[in-house]
Amino acid sequence: MSDYLAEIQRMSVPFMKPYTYGHLETAGHKNKNREVMFYDKQKQCRDTKEGHEIIEQAEGLLRMEIRPSHKELRKFSPKRRAIELLTRSFFTNMTGSVLKHVQFTAPVEGVTLGWLKSQPYSIHQIESTMGFNLLKKTLTASEIKQLYKPSTYDNRRTLARKIHFQALNL
C-alpha cells in the first residue's frame, strides 16, 4: 500500500500541489479550493480501533476522498443540496476527473523475447522506459529532473505512459 501512496504523491496533477501526512499514511493533492486524498483504509481502521473482522476486511483497500470546490458543487446543484449531489452522475464526474490522472507503473522483473518482438517500440525505447521507471521508484521527481534536460524528461514521461509492462507474465 505504501508503494501506491508513494506513486500518488509523486504524480503530477494540474493546478494542484502534492502532500503527504505521516510516513506515507496519506497522500494527496490540493489547492485553495479542491482536495483529493488517498489513504490505507486498514491503517485508518486500526487507528479508530475497529473490530478485528473489519480490520481484516479493510486489508489492501486504498481509499480515495474528494473534496470538490464550491464551483463544482454548484454546477450540479445551484443551491448545493445534498439530495441533488448524491447522484450517480455527480459521482462519475468527480471520480472520473481524478482517476484520469492516476496511473500506476507495473513492476518489471523479466522480459521475454516474444514480448519484445511483439512491441511496436524499438529496444532502445523499451530500455529507456525500464530505466526511467526504475528511477521513478527510487528518486523523487525533482531529483530525476536534475538528471535530464527538460525536453528529455518530458519525452521519457510520455514514453513511459505509452509502454505498458502489464502484458508480461511476471
Written account of the structure:
The mean pLDDT is 84. With 170 residues, the chain is an alpha+beta fold. A 4-stranded antiparallel β-sheet has the order 1-2-3-4. It is globular. Strand 1 (17-21) and strand 2 form a beta hairpin. Helix 8 (123-138) packs across helix 10 (150-162). The chain has 10 helices and 4 strands, in the order H-E-E-E-H-H-E-H-H-H-H-H-H-H.
Notable features of this structure?
single chain; 170 residues; alpha+beta; four-stranded antiparallel beta sheet
Structural class: alpha+beta
Question: What's the mean pLDDT score?
Answer: 84
Helix content: 40-55%
Distance separating the two termini: 19 Å
Tally of helical runs: 10
Outline, from the CA principal axes? Answer: globular
Main sheet characteristics: 4 strands, antiparallel
Q: Give a count of the beta strands, DSSP E runs of length 2 or more.
A: 4
The value of Rg in angstroms is 19 Å
Biggest β-sheet: strands ordered side by side in the sheet: 1-2-3-4
- Looking at how many chains there are and whether they match, the oligomeric state comes to single chain
